[in-house]
Amino acid sequence: MCGKNGETAFFLCDRMLAILPMLRNLKSPYQFTICLILSVSQLSFGQARQASPNRDSKTPSAAGRSAFNSSCAACHGLDGRGSDKAVNISEDVRVRRLSDAQLSSIISNGVPGTGMPAFRNLPERQVRALVSYLRSLQGRDEAHALTGDAKRGREIFFGKGDCSSCHMISGLGGFLGPDLTNHGASSSPSVIRDEIMRSPRVPPPGYRAAVLTTASGERLEGLIRNEDNFSVQLQTKDGRFHFLTKAELQEIEYLNASLMPADYRDRLNDGDLNDLVSYLMAIPDSNSKVTPHQHEDDTE
């Protein structure tokens, strides 16, 4: 019987043999009953320990979080966004470009000449869990799950999505919207997807749209970059800045809506959207050379 269930059975048999002499020496039925109950309880606890040898082990995310909170958070913050003691490691593009092997080396060996110490006492398994947790803070774990085609996403960005009419990536594209070259370094795929599909949109600060009608009847649409009581500076989609006094204008029509289209649910199917997000999540090679978008520095 002792060999029937392997190590667990041997453990139970061994414990039973150990307590039998003690039970024989008990003369009172009451003492015998109490001792038997305690012994069985001990055996059950021991069986549970044998059946679950890894009960105290942590999942990689939990182990990584624990290691990060105890070793890194004091300087880098619980969210990895840095403090007065250390840099932002969850959003910094340079850190996000590092490979897992490079991050592991930095954790184990430190960075000479900086405040980054070496954690040589951390076992390799714990370092891997810590790097995995850092990737989750960076949103990269979600990025790895993307199934879109980044190459096709680029075609959508510069084609049917018409994103490049306002946004620039690696020196190519428009001027009105934010440069999205490193947008994937600070945003998760779900955040980017939600922003593309958002409707209606509220223009963020600094991106207030307007249509100016000049005294001659010319209409100029774009973003107001500066405005005071007497003048206004407007940037149109071609990148040009128009400096006009309000005395020269017939009308200033402020647009409450964003210039970014709100019909992407109709323009893009699920595959298109996944491809586009995959392209935006791709971090450009820091060694690659791009030719900046050339335009005339025209002002009016």
Descriptive report:
The structure is a single chain. This protein has 300 residues and is of the alpha+beta class. Among the domains are: 60-144, Cytochrome c-like domain (Cytochrome Bc1 Complex, Chain D, domain 2, Orthogonal Bundle), CATH 1.10.760; 150-198 and 262-281, no CATH class; 209-255, Roll (SH3 type barrels). 42% of the residues lie in helices and 12% in strands. It contains twelve helices and seven strands. It has helices spanning 6-24, 29-51, 60-71, 73-76, 93-97, 100-109, 124-138, 140-144, 150-158, 189-197, 264-267, 270-281, and strands spanning 168-169, 172-173, 209-214, 219-227, 231-236, 241-245, 249-255. It has a five-stranded antiparallel sheet with strand order 6-5-4-3-7, with no helix packed on it. A two-stranded antiparallel ribbon has the order 1-2. Helix 6 packs across helix 7. The longest helix has 23 residues, at 29-51. The chain is elongated and about 75 Å long. Mean pLDDT is 75; it is low at 1-14, 34-57 and 285-300.
The structure class reads alpha+beta
Q: Provide the CATH superfamily of the domain at 60-144.
A: Cytochrome c-like domain
First-to-last CA distance:
96 Å
What is the CATH topology of the domain at 60-144?
A: Cytochrome Bc1 Complex, Chain D, domain 2
- Percentage of β-strand residues: 5-15%
* E-strand count: 7
Shape field: elongated
Text of the CATH class of the domain at 60-144 = Mainly Alpha
Just name the CATH architecture of the domain at 60-144.
Orthogonal Bundle
Rg over CA atoms: 32 Å
Q: Give me the strand/helix succession.
A: HHHHHHHHHEEHEEEEEHH
Can you give the mean pLDDT?
75
What profile does the largest beta sheet have? 5 strands, antiparallel
